[in-house]
Amino acid sequence: MSNFRKLKVFTGNGHPGLVSEIAEYLGVDVSAASVKTFSDGEINVFIEESVRGVDVFVIQPTCTPINDNLMELLILIDALRRASARRITAVLPYYGYARQDRKAKARDPITAKLVANLITAAGARRVLAVDLHAGQIQGFFDIPVDHLQAVPIIAEYFLNKHMENALVVSPDLGGVTRARALSERLNVPLAIIDKRRPQPNQAEIMNIIGEVKGKRVIMIDDIIDTAGTITLGAQALIDQGAEEVYVCCTHPVLSGAAIERLEKSPIKEVVITNTIPLPPGKQLDKIKSLSIAPLLGEAIIRIHEDLSVSKLFD
User: Fold this and answer.
1) What single-letter DSSP state applies at residue 31?
2) Nearest partner of 252 among 89, 170, 157, 131, judged by Cα
3) What is the pTM of this model?
4) Quick check: 56 pLDDT over 90?
5) pLDDT tens digits for 134-143?
6) CA separation for the pair 225, 258 (Å, rounded)
7) If pLDDT is split at 50, 70 and 90, which confidence band does 312 have?
8) Most Cβ neighbours (<10 Å): which of 44, 59, 205, 206?
9) Residues annotated as catalytic (active site), given as ranges
């Protein structure tokens, strides 16, 4: 405990359960801060203890309600900076707006870059994130970024299942690097789903690159949002002769009809991490949640003690 006298953890209303787990791992209490909303919708923050000269970690996923959680994060950082915190690290288990990372068509905003600018301008001096949707988002920040990956946690879960005849599948070409990392840790083959939409508003045609017949398939993605792609992919794998389909992701956004689609799908199990809180209405028997708290807790210790964070990637 004495090593952490100058370390404090703060949070808004984004994911208090995860923050409590991280604080327990660190052996500290969550520091006192009042984060409330006025009747007109404005967010008000009051830091209830001294942070002068302290190494502060603000843990807040910018998930739904994304704009409220983002503003809470920014105002907390600003309040802590004005209260003379020595260093403020923004810990982002989930980075909202990450999918708006480039101009896909004329006059598009690059909102992921705008959010990075806001976090830096508020007073953060370091960012700790988990599985950013696009790796180049690290370069959107002009401050150090430690980018953690959940693949080791997911791999450990499946290794403990001792699955025979397993195969890892990437649901699209963009996720091949992530899928390869999992396949190498599990020491199993890799396959890829190549999908295309021949015309607007027509169903996607999926071609599976690799042999899936008789395999116990593990399909991995960083985000499951509406679950449309992942459930179509699972059905395509079953149609091609896969014995079972497991799905895993880091960030369970699960918006729109996602829960209904997952429930009706042939997917045997959906393995997620708790970077985003899962309300009771989104909890299914086939969903298995793994805790990201030990990984984030260990990274916070290493940042606080000026040790290498890259050791966590091994």
Assistant:
1) P
2) 131
3) 0.94
4) yes
5) 989 999 999 9
6) 7
7) confident
8) 59
9) 195
